[in-house]
Specification:
The complex is a heterodimer of chains A (233) and B (421). Chain A is built from eight helices and ten strands. Chain A has helices at residues 44-51, 74-84, 100-110, 115-128, 144-155, 174-189, 201-205, 227-230, and strands at 2-13, 16-28, 33-37, 59-64, 67-68, 85-88, 162-166, 193-197, 209-214, 217-223. Chain A has a six-stranded mixed beta sheet with strand order 6-7-8-3-9-10, sandwiched between helices. In chain A, helix 3 (100-110) runs parallel beside helix 5 (144-155) and helix 5 (144-155) packs parallel to helix 6. The longest helix of chain A has 16 residues, at 174-189. With 421 residues, chain B is α+β, with helices and mostly antiparallel strands. Chain B is built from eleven helices and 13 strands. In chain B, the strands form three sheets. In chain B, strands 5-6-11-8-10-9 form a six-stranded mixed β-barrel. Chain B has a four-stranded antiparallel beta sheet with strand order 4-12-1-13. In chain B, strands 2-3 form a two-stranded antiparallel sheet. The longest helix of chain B is centred in the C-terminal third of the chain and has 44 residues, at 282-325. Chain B is elongated, with a radius of gyration of 34 Å. Classes of the chains: A alpha/beta (233), B alpha+beta (421). The A-B interface holds A 45, 48-49, 52-55, 74-75, 77-79, 81-83, 85, 87, 89-91, 93, 95-98, 102, 106-107, 109-111, 115, 154, 158, 166-167, 170 and B 1-2, 4-5, 8-9, 12-13, 15-16, 328-329, 331-332, 334-342, 413-415, 417-418, 420-421.
Chain lengths: 233, 421
């Protein structure tokens, strides 16, 4: 599904040049559950930005389903982000001026869905994350866990094949974090590819595969026993 | 993104930043309002100057023995005692030697003091015994203004009689005290043709009422000018009773004013000696005044447009800083699938809404200021089209300057969404 070939990302800060990613090659198959780990400033978020085409690598190739998508025009890249990727952020990043329902409907408007279809699908998605009773609440009226569930519903709005999550439980108490993680794992069981940045060793161990980034370099890439296999299912 | 979502996000964003939004709207309104008013002033000044120059007064060449030719209150016959120079109404014949002159006449400003005696017009009840006359039955008007004029005056000023007739040469030479009322004065005096009225001890008969002209002449009266030479009196004696004469010659084509002046100068140089009279063209001064007014209006317009630009640049800066402050929102929108074009449209929609509210307020300010100009500067109603085009132009400038912040917002990197994660 995803093929990163010797990806490099440099930032020119005047006379200083910062290498955020160096020679990163990575292959991610459809349906994988990948945890990206590493200390702060190691390049995890930069890798996630490049995977989500929110940032363009300064070197190397990024192939999605065999196509080099880094050279596509802005409109085409936006369409791919909208249709194929779902983003879940540590601090939820909901629009505070929109209700839960409107937040979930928003990505569907870029996909050109009709208003009635957007509403119908958003109602379904919010129902799936247990927020049918919070449809018209603004984010400020929701708890952290509820906000993250709205964010997940929003990420799933256009039925993406890849969810990119950056520490999705980082701002939540452990019980709420666990709920979010279960939703993510459930999505993976339904075939959605997950790439999740986390600092949490335990969460990292629950993925199928763990990638370690250190100083912008891929230090380790190990396949783990999945929770499903662990439970003997 | 659909327009509906643009509008939803824009209105919510405006509501969320209410104080800042109100300041932006006020800034836009003041910019548009001042530019609209500046254009209205320019249009009003131009129209007013055009109207002023279209007045018959500015088709005239004024001949006087006095240097102060701008003084309109000169009586009919003048003597320059020092040089024993006499200018009489007979000199109106100079027009015969000036082919570009259409009319020749005199106009002497005067006041008519109404006496305590009025006669009805023919067919009305007689007033009875003058001894039992009740002054309270008279109109309250005790005095009105007007002009002593020669017959050509009415032709030159294109004034027509609504009732009765205008003065003829016979009226002038007959020496009868006659009166013509302006339309409003006639209504106020409640008299009519044939009414007799005592003015300065003489019994004047009303022979005509003028059509309304829309000028101050409607409130005035006109009587035949004192033209002693035409009346066959002893000229020298008549001159002893007189104070000064200003002769007026008007042309059909204002482009021929200079030529007509030269023709008159030739006559008067021959008759009185070169340079002995002042022959002037009031239009020249009026045109100079028009140029001054036009320059002043241009300066005001420049200041108004400068104000609009300063307001627009400030609005643009505030919108830009607003966009930068919302870099995270831009990043999130892009992560959700918004293209640069979508982001541009969203921010532009917001600017459009703010500019729309500002424009509505600006139109109000423009209308208010143009009404103020109409009432205080005496402008005629400023054409709605001129005002509208000014407002639309000002709004377009404001909108053009809001393109930049919207473009900058669209160019914000998508990766901003993850910053500070």
């Amino acid at each position: 599904m995803i093929e990163l070939d010797r990806i490099e990302k440099r930032y020119d800060l005047g006379e200083v040049q910062v290498k955020a990613l160096v020679d990163v090659s990575l292959h991610i198959e459809r349906g994988e559950y990948v945890a990206v780990m590493g200390p702060s400033g190691s390049g995890k978020s930069t890798l996630l930005n490049i995977l989500g085409i929110l940032d363009i690598p300064t070197g190397g190739n990024y192939l999605l389903e065999g196509y080099d998508i880094t050279r596509l025009p802005d409109r085409e890249q936006a369409r791919i982000r909208n249709k194929h990727f779902g983003f879940v952020f540590q601090s939820f990043n909901l629009f505070s001026e929109l209700s839960a329902l409107e937040n979930v409907m928003l990505p569907m408007s870029y996909a050109g869905l009709s208003s009635s279809m957007r509403r119908e699908r958003a109602l379904d998605l919010l129902g799936n994350v247990g927020l049918s009773h919070r449809l018209h609440h603004l984010p400020t009226m929701l708890s952290g866990g509820e906000q993250q569930r709205v964010a997940i519903a929003r990420a799933l709005a256009n039925q993406p094949s890849l969810i990119l999550a950056d520490e999705p439980t980082g701002n939540l108490p452990s019980d709420k974090g666990e709920e979010i993680l279960e939703i993510i794992e459930d999505l993976n069981r339904q075939g959605v590819t997950i790439v999740m940045v986390t600092h949490n060793e335990e969460q990292g161990m629950r993925a199928h595969r763990r990638i370690n980034i250190m100083d912008g370099r891929l230090e380790a890439d190990e396949r783990l026993v999945s929770s499903l296999e662990r439970s003997g299912a | 993104m659909k327009r509906g979502e643009d509008l939803l996000l824009s209105t919510r964003s405006i509501r969320r930043r209410m104080v800042e939004s109100i300041l932006l709207i006020v800034g836009i309104a003041l910019g548009i309002g001042s530019a609209g008013a500046g254009i209205a002033m320019m249009a009003g000044t131009t129209a007013e100057s055009r109207k002023l120059l279209a007045s018959p007064e500015y088709r005239e060449i004024v001949v006087s023995i006095r240097e102060d030719t701008a003084d309109m209150d000169l009586p009919a016959v003048a003597i320059d005692n020092e040089n024993d120079l006499v200018l009489t109404t007979a000199d109106l014949r100079a027009a015969d030697e000036a082919p570009d002159v259409q009319y020749a006449y005199v106009t002497n400003r005067t006041r008519y003091h109404v006496g305590d005696f009025r006669m009805p017009r023919p067919g009305q009840e007689p007033p009875g015994d003058p001894a039992s006359f009740d002054p309270s039955e008279l109109p309250e008007i005790e005095e009105f203004e007007g002009y002593e004029v020669s017959p050509d005056f009415f032709s030159a000023w294109n004034m027509q009689a609504a009732e009765g007739s205008l003065f003829t040469e016979e009226d002038i030479t007959g020496g009868e005290p006659l009166l013509i009322y302006g339309s409003e004065l006639a209504a106020d005096m409640s008299g009519g043709i044939g009414e007799q009225i005592v003015i300065r001890g003489e019994m004047y008969t009303v022979v005509g009422i003028l059509e309304p002209t829309g000028t101050d002449y409607d409130k005035m009266a006109f009587s035949p000018a004192f033209m002693p030479d035409l009346q066959g009196n002893d000229l020298r004696e008549a001159m002893r009773r007189s104070w000064g004469t200003t002769l007026r010659f008007s042309v059909a084509d204002v482009e021929r004013l200079e030529q007509a002046k030269e023709q008159l100068e030739s006559y008067f140089s021959r008759a009185y000696g070169e340079g002995s009279l002042v022959i002037s063209i009031p239009r020249a001064e009026a045109e100079a005044a028009k140029v001054r007014a036009s320059r002043l209006a241009t300066v005001v317009l420049f200041l108004a447009i400068a104000g609009l630009l300063i307001a627009s640049v400030n609005v643009s800066n505030i919108l830009y800083s607003r966009a930068v402050r919302r870099h995270r929102s831009v990043g999130i929108l892009k992560a959700l699938g918004a293209s640069m074009r979508d982001v541009f449209r969203l921010f532009f929609s917001e600017a459009l809404l703010l500019a729309g509210f500002g424009a509505v307020l600006g139109v109000g300010i423009s209308l208010l200021l143009s009404k103020l100009m109409e009432s205080t500067l005496g402008f005629e109603r400023i054409p709605a089209g001129v005002l509208a085009s000014g407002i639309v132009g000002a709004w377009a400038i404001t909108m053009a300057l809001t393109v930049y912040p919207a473009l900058q917002a669209a160019r914000l990197p998508a990766a901003e969404a993850w910053r500070n994660e």
